[in-house]
Fold:
Amino acid sequence: MKKFTQIATFVVALALILSACGGAKPTEAPKPVATEAPAQPATEAPAAATEAPVVAEPFRVAVIMPSAKNDMAFSQSMYDALVAIQNEMGADKFEFVFSEGMFKVDDAAAAIRDYATQGYNLVIAHGSQYGSSLQEIAPDFPETSFAWGTTVDTFGLPNIYAYEAASEEGGYVNGVLAASLSKSKTIGIVAPIETGDAKLYVEGFKQGVAATDPAVKVNVNYIGSFSDVALAAEAANTHISNGADVLTGTAQMVVGAIGKAKDSNVLWFASDANQSSLAPEIVVVSQVYHWEIILKEMISKIQSGTLGGESFAINLKNNGEVMEYNPGYNLAPEVKALGDAAIQGIIDGTITITLP
Amino acid sequence: MISELFTVTVLIGILSSGIRLATPYLYAAIGETFSQRSGVLNLGVEGQMLLGAFAAFYVAMNTGSLWLGVLAAMIVGVAMGLAMAFATVNLHAEQGISGIGFYLFGLGMSDLLFQKMMGTVRTVDGFQKIAIPFLSKIPGIGEIFFNHNILVYGSYFLVLLAWFVLNKTTLGLKIRAVGENPDAADSLGVSVARVRYFAIIFGGMMSGLAGASLSIALLNVFQQNMTSGLGFIAVALVYFGAWRPGGVLVGALLFSMVNSLQLWIQVLGISIPSELAVMMPYVLTILVLIATVSKVIAPTALTKPFEREE
Structure:
């Protein structure tokens, strides 16, 4: 009997270990694109030899992400940004590791502390749910720089950077285009929780629609979760039954809604990452976050000795937000012109979005 | 504003989407009913669903055959059920703890396989709606009940089948006997181990099917942790339904209808804070549970391993 219990314990332990492997695995940084590979080693070798006495330590970054790095949304935008920086700076000067799928805040807090202990230069907690953990941990590691988003709050700590996305700007542009394309004059939004960049996106979208065609109705559905794909899909269904012929949404659970939009052949306006590949027939344009714009600023500040205390934002003007049209969708040129005008207006400041 | 809720279109919308939303709960909860009626609490449902959802999606995407996807999900469910049965029946593992272990295994494993074998979120063309001839033409009723995909119909058929098997067949009698009084059943020559194996494996198979109903029929995508707690609600629904298929059906429908009601409330712009709207199905479930639970009795041998007295 005792032996059985031992075996059972072993099985459970094995299961736990395996699950840990799946959930959060610090993975090696991906290799830079193959094109740079040939010829370089030969020329670099002597240079490295001469520089040998002053081997610069690579800049090391660790990221905690709430969902998978390939979620086609929020987490992927950060992962893609780090890959972009690495390709630019070189793998010998910039290293990064990540823990994905950290939807449990407790696990995330443990990972943040772990990374800080291991001496990473910058630890990024990519999710507004991690704020209070960071506030607690950061003072214990005054030499380490931390960043979190989306927020503007650095807690007044000298080693915390805050970052956010002015997602209302891309939301506005999406709203302008969506209002022009809606025939039924009804648009549905599938949103997660009424907070952070999701709330900003919804606000911007509504104003973009109102400015283009006040007759168009925008209905918002906050489903109360960042991960409930099934409910997001049913929310999309509800919008469609209610007559919506254009949908949009933000955060990682919207893939469920995109699937429904595709089935019912209604248009989709994307945010966070480029979602065209999910449904090439119906995705019109994606607001894509390019966090590398502000991350590079953060890195150079850290390298010159400032570890935090500042808040950054990506927006259309600093190219941290880019509207990526889906080449597979045939957007009428006169409608696209409206979208481009809205982008220009926001950059010039002739269009202002009032936030509540 | 509130009056908008009582138009025919909206009522039809609420009811038909409630019917759809209930589907994965029904598969998982009916499977769990069998398992619990035989005396085994399986908390690994969510993990079985996730692996089933992945298997169905992956196979359907690569072979183009949705039915092969369904088959794959059921095979994965059977395998998970087999492991669970071995742990609880042969090894007498503590059921709650090992169930959580299996859940975590399914959660991690489905994510790992997804990362390694697919790499990114993709979509698949899932089961299409089948409008049942004549019946689907009935105004209102047709749209609510007779215009869904095959796995939605299947889940309601399963409830009927489960009721029949549990109450009208020798197999059902054996399952109930083993869950109520395994010693007596054993003394009458019923193999407790074999019956429990059957019930747990059947439960696993249904959980796998529940996963498939999400990934290739209702949502047509696979994403990490896509069930997000659905499997645990299914376990709760078994208690809610007092371990009876009919009760499970009522519970699943009630929960889903209130959920679709709150979706419509928001879509129609009725001014209730979204947080409150989202809470509605859960609050209601708890209230009903409080009101009814004292009147029903769980299978006596639930969570108790069986060891023959020599």
Remarks:
- The CA atoms of residues 56 and 69 of chain B lie 4 Å apart.
- Chain B has twelve helices and two strands.
